[in-house]
Design brief:
Largest sheet of chain A: none
Number of helices of chain A: 9
Oligomer: homodimer
Number of strands of chain A: 0
Structural class of chain A: mainly alpha
Shape of chain A: elongated
DNA sequence: AAACGATACGGAACAATGTTCCGCTTGACA
DNA sequence: TGTCAAGCGGAACATTGTTCCGTATCGTTT
């Protein structure tokens, strides 16, 4: 008899399936580091020692695999927002540090930023998931920094997050382009024209 | 006897070849408008009424075709720089208007911005050509605006141009993301913290 | 006008890559 | 141990950029 059955509860998965899923996630993470996020599906399958069919059984498409690989890190970034707000001297300082965190995350994953704004069918999911998770956090930081008069009001967190993501595209491999620096410029543009103090 | 021969002068091309090249450029321009810059090569060939081989005879790869299609518009944008500097009230105003021009150009060509930062082998050419032509113009505007104390000094035109290009990626199709607005934020970040007047 | 050779053309064929399909294998449970 | 749904491997398919080569065409020469 099944451990769980019916009633809408999650079905137990076979042991080999669980094992393969983990192998896949680990292999994908390694391959992404070595060859970039746009590494061929076949390479990932080979690295995990499974067939391509197995990938697609666990992850409906490439984007879902990418999502799964980075889920924890995005989660950590999201959770860092409120923490920074509590820790830093001012809301604006917290905002700056949080965006730094996000930029570091994107820039250190070869090609992740590029894939984030790809308009392929499956990537909409990835895109949406990232933003759904992070935009509310950004919104909270914006609200606090606007409240303290350090940044303009009326900024759209979604739009700014997308802008920051876009600015991270193609960093790495071009010593003349520093994503952190240009994001710094953008964040400077967020400040109120007339600042208190 | 050949009209021109030897001595390094350009070889005369056959009449049908010239005709096909023009047909190709016209067809490509139309297809790009209708289906985006990432339209399949076959579609362009079909629209021009030629075989794919003919495309590759005239343009070594997709990127070269794209370059050829937009050459005139980029040229016009480059030439607008000095003109604006002469026309507008202040260098900063000229800079703002010029960047607007560039953003409009990128945003109205579906997918052009996206392809600009693709790291494919052939796209390096496209990328390089755009920047080679526009960075000096930007540099001139920056120099003037820095001179008048309206923007920070030490800004790298190449880096800022790339940033603006990146910000244009994926505009269109997302009513929540307005490239012009976020570029405005970035440009605001260029201003000196302490402005005269 | 006819012949000829270089130029150009068309589209089949190749390579890379995401995705689907299906016959075979295997783990879980009776 | 027998059964069978869950799971697996990898061949096959679809799409797209690019190359190749046999054939057609243009421009020149006779």
């Amino acid at each position: 008899m099944r451990v769980q059955h019916g009633g809408g509860a999650a079905r137990t998965k076979r042991a080999d399936a669980r094992r393969n899923e983990k192998a896949l996630l680990d292999a994908a993470a390694e391959v992404f580091v070595a060859s970039g996020v746009d590494a061929p599906v076949r390479d990932i399958a080979a690295a995990a020692g499974v067939g391509v069919g197995t990938i697609y059984r666990h992850f409906p498409n490439r984007a879902d695999l990418i999502t799964a690989v980075y889920r924890h890190q995005v989660e950590a970034c999201a959770e860092a927002g409120p923490a920074l707000l509590a820790t830093e001297a001012t809301p604006y300082a917290a905002l700056v540090r949080w965006i730094d965190l996000f930029v570091d995350f994107l820039v250190t994953k070869h090609g992740l930023a590029a894939v984030m704004q790809s308009d392929g069918p499956g990537f909409a999911t990835l895109h949406a998931w990232f933003l759904d998770r992070l935009v509310p956090v950004c919104n909270q930081l914006f609200a606090a920094a606007a409240e303290s008069g350090e940044i303009r009001s009326g900024l759209d967190p979604y739009e700014v997050m997308r802008a920051v993501g876009n600015l991270c595209v193609g960093a790495e491999g071009d010593p003349r382009y520093d994503a952190r620096r240009v994001v710094g410029l953008l964040v400077a543009g967020l400040r109120t024209a007339d600042r208190p103090g």
